[in-house]
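ERR on first pass: missing label on line 2. Operator R.T. fixed the label and resubmitted. Corrected input:
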Amino acid sequence: MPELPEVETIVRALTPRIRGRHILSAEILHQRIVRYSKLDVVAGITGQKVENVRRHGKFILIDLSQGLLTIHLGMTGQLLFNTQRTPWTRAIFNLDDTQLLYDDPRMFGSIEFSTAEYRTRSLGPDALSINEDVSTKLRKRRAPIKSLLLNQRIFAGVGNIYADEALFRAGIYPGRRADRISNARTARLIEIIQEVLTEAVDYRGSSVSDYVDTEGRKGSFQNRHNVYSRDGQPCTTCGTPIRKTVIGQRGTHYCPNCQK
DNA sequence: TGGAATGTTCGGCT
DNA sequence: AAGCCGAACATTCC
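pass 2 clean. output:
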């Protein structure tokens, strides 16, 4: 569910409500959610003060007075303030005056405590701060361009929705080998990716199935999608029906006329 | 009922 | 050795 724009929206909502507050207590309701944490999460964060909230790609980084809480929402993770516990609540954080719940039915998400930043070390630069270097890197690869946009080691933050939307705007067929796209077009794609992500942040992300922010509010960028989840519907540019196929094991939406 | 779902990681092959 | 691909993870929803 959450890609860069959705995670950014959550971080912006989270920051003013938890920065400067203390984590009085915490509870992990399902051990799977802390499977990557080398240190005990509850022991690590209890009593700590929240110094800052950041984001790298799709990871939420919460700096504590001592250590770091790293949260990834996976496919179905949600952080919610002051809501009722559900059967899918996996963690509870009690702060000075608020309660934050982590809900995640599918449990692809994760919560980790560490003394230093290590989880995001293998990620490439955040998608909102990329440049020509990334373009150069992409042009050496033979994989389909879409697969590379989803590869968080090259740059981090783009998921299935924004990969499809960016490739549509760039007029590039998602299955095209990266090394067969011209230098100019690859450079333009990098710019377009950042434009799409920035616009999506402005619209508070895309709520395709069940994405909501920390207050339960939906985003509205889904109303501006050109291709994602629009298979069979006319292309906004040429009217040709949008097609859906599978590329790199992921559902992929594109206009067969506009994207070559 | 089977298939697909907005993500990441791991193992195997080239 | 690096890159590419498919499988696996767990659950809900259509």
